[in-house]
Design brief:
The complex is a heterodimer of chains A (about 110) and B (about 120). By secondary structure, chain A is mostly beta strands. Chain A is built from no helices and 10 strands. Chain B has about 120 residues and is mainly β. In chain B, the strands form 2 sheets. In chain B, strands 2, 4, 5, 6, 9, 10 and 11 form a 7-stranded mixed beta sheet that branches. In chain B, strands 1-3-8-7 form a 4-stranded antiparallel beta sheet, with no helix packed on it. Classes of the chains: A mainly beta (about 110), B mainly beta (about 120). At the A-B interface, strand 4, strand 5 and strand 9 of A face strand 5 and strand 10 of B.
């Protein structure tokens, strides 16, 4: 199974500042289709996860452009360029390269 | 509007069985692969099982393999998870999730609100 490891486990950022969350996979997620099989989700308390990013860097429709994904191979990053109040949540990466489609352990993003 | 509504959760004793259902609307159900993802109280997300649009491909997490069975009925726009030999560690909120894209996984773009399964004596 592919193991997904996020860092840090928690992060405190001031309003308007940049937040960066890392995700490392135990195997390469890049395929012959020239895409990385990685997604990012946001989960707020009492809500299901929301898809933010797929193919490592493609923003889902309706997701604000302050959210961006980068990286390839085994190392990926989710960046929130300017933290807004509504961004406080837990963020998960997920590989969908092969089953089981494993998630990272989550990163809790809070206000400083 | 895409909607996924799970049902069938509840309190069940260890070793017993339970069947979860997910009713879909607002999209062409038989075009899409579907998945179950669970979340234990206060914990992270765990992919449980997935099924292709035509039921030709099914996958399971090692933790549930041999005990859980995923199925779907495209005529009823419904997804199911038959859970047997339940263990206390299966206690979780079970989400139904739609796979983004047709023919190739691109993450899960719609999720239900979940149905809670509690395994306890």
């Amino acid at each position: 199974d592919i193991v997904m490891t996020q860092s840090p486990d928690s992060l405190a950022v001031s309003l308007g500042e940049r937040a960066t969350i890392n995700c490392k996979s135990s195997q390469i997620l890049f395929s012959s289709s020239n895409e990385d099989y990685l997604a990012w989700y946001q989960q707020k308390p009492g809500q299901p996860p929301k898809l933010l990013i797929y193919w490592a860097s493609t923003r889902e429709s309706g997701v604000p452009d302050r959210f961006s994904g980068s990286g390839s191979g085994t190392d990926f990053t989710l960046t929130i360029s300017s933290l807004q109040a509504e961004d406080v949540a837990v963020y998960y990466c997920q590989q969908y390269y092969s089953t089981p489609y494993t998630f990272g352990q989550g990163t809790k993003l809070e206000f400083k | 509007e895409v909607q996924l509504v799970e049902s069938g959760g509840g309190l069940v004793q260890p070793g017993k069985s339970l069947r979860l259902s997910c009713t879909a609307s607002g999209f062409t159900f038989d075009d899409c692969a579907m998945h179950w993802v669970r979340q234990a109280p206060g914990k992270g997300l765990e992919w449980v099982s997935g099924i292709s649009w035509n039921s030709g491909n099914k996958g399971y997490a090692d933790s549930v393999k041999g005990r859980f069975t995923i199925s779907r009925d495209n005529a009823k726009n419904s997804l199911y998870l038959q859970m047997s030999s339940l263990r206390t560690e299966d206690t979780a909120l079970y989400y139904c999730a739609k796979e983004r894209g047709v023919g190739a996984t691109q993450g899960f773009d719609y999720w239900g609100q979940g149905t809670l399964v509690i395994v306890s004596s």
